[in-house]
Amino acid sequence: xxxxxxxxxxxxxxxxxxxxxxxxxxxxxxxxxxxxxxxxxxxxxxxxxxxxxxxxxxxxxxxxxxxxxxxxxxxxxxxxxxxxxxxxxxxxxxxxxxxxxxxxxxxxxxxxxxxxxxxxxxxxxxxxxxxxxxxxxxxxxxxxxxxxxxxxxxxxxxxxxxxxxxxxxxxxxxxxxxxxxxxxxxxxxxxxxxxxxxxxxxxxxxxxxxxxxxxxxxxxxxxxxxxxxxxxxxxxxxxxxxxxxxxxxxxxxxxxxxxxxxxxxxxxxxxxxxxxxxxxxxxxxxxxxxxxxxxxxxxxxxxxxx
Length: 306
Description:
Elements: E1 6-16, H1 19-30, E2 33-34, E3 39-40, H2 43-49, E4 57-63, E5 66-72, E6 92-97, H3 101-108, E7 119-120, E8 132-133, E9 142-147, E10 153-158, H4 163-166, E11 172-179, H5 183-194, E12 197-205, H6 207-213, E13 219-226, E14 234-242, E15 261-266, H7 269-275, E16 283-284, E17 290-295, E18 301-305
């Protein structure tokens, strides 16, 4: 099977309950900007996702060169499951890259904002919300994990290095991370089916990782996968050896709040559909463009688009 020519991750498409509430959160607390007015999702795609005949409102937001799409699934959508952790296979986060995490953290928790407050995942040794610096052996980054108003996990991420080294850091979406049951199996799927390549592979553990994830004694394989488009966000696989996942993802439906979609650019959507044995599931938009909605081995959704 010839890998599909995946050029880049175009955006992350994320279901929300209230579009205005989520848009305000991402703009006010994280610095995203609207790329244009909200619009109605293409009918063929809405049908494939399972939204039915009603109009689905969508807002696209940009931070730097990267884009996030908020899709108003509505109050009747199945909510984000709780409790859950980053070790569970339902987990998928967005990592927002910043030059100065202390400034970004203060903006995230600004008291003069009318938008919804974030819910902390990461906590310092005193129990309060705080960025965590990982050891050099775990990449040396400083990060803070939290949740948006719908329960979606996000991460502030400051790259390793001193202030001078970080002065060239560009704000934007660094990556999206998904928890997987087997890092080697997922690497094989993304390489063989989609043509992504492994750019980094490390195993993180220790007290700092525990504080970052709010887990006791985690051990996690962290794998970075890159598309051919070097400027696009990359995909990160999180293979937790400890603790083991308690929440399977395979039962989630595309209309559930938890069901993010990784929208990928593909030069040959028809060929990808043939490779995956899904030729009959091709979606043709009102403008004639082809798309394909499918899942990876652990149930995470992807949407290939021309």
